[in-house]
């Protein structure tokens, strides 16, 4: 399961890299929706390492 931790600063860089369009803003941070297919494309994009896999 991929998720975005509290380290997210809301830059939005990761959102366009999701082929499922599952990364969306929620307040001043971003979150991953339930349609994530675990492809992992977002994992290396975040400049602060906020995207995690559990
Ligand atoms: S793992 Fe893939 S489908 Fe899931 S949020 Fe990241 S880029 Fe999107
Ligand atoms: S790239 Fe990282 S810091 Fe930027 S919105 Fe995505 S998870 Fe948050």
Overall, the morphology is: globular
Question: Number of helical segments?
Answer: 0
Number of domains: 1
Which class of secondary structure composition applies to the elements?
mainly beta
First CA to last CA: what distance? 5 Å
- The poorly predicted ranges are none
Catalogue the ligands. Answer: iron/sulfur cluster
Q: Roughly what percent helix?
A: under 10%
Strand segment tally: 4
**Side-by-side strand order of the widest sheet:** 1-4
Return Rg in Å: 10 Å
Strand content: 25-35%
CATH class: Alpha Beta
Mean pLDDT over the full residue set: 97
How can the largest sheet be summarized? Answer: 2 strands, antiparallel
CATH topology: Alpha-Beta Plaits
Looking at the overall shape, the CATH architecture is 2-Layer Sandwich
Series of H and E elements: EEEE
What does this structure look like?
The chain is mostly beta strands. The chain has one domain: 2-Layer Sandwich (Alpha-Beta Plaits), CATH 3.30.70.20. It has strands at residues 2-4, 23-26, 29-32, 51-53. The model has no long low-confidence stretch (mean pLDDT 97). The protein binds iron/sulfur cluster (2 copies). One iron/sulfur cluster binds next to loops.
Please give a quick description of this structure.
The protein is an all-beta fold. It contains no helices and 4 strands.
What distinguishing features does this structure have?
single chain, 54 residues, mainly beta, Alpha-Beta Plaits, two-stranded antiparallel ribbon, binds iron/sulfur cluster
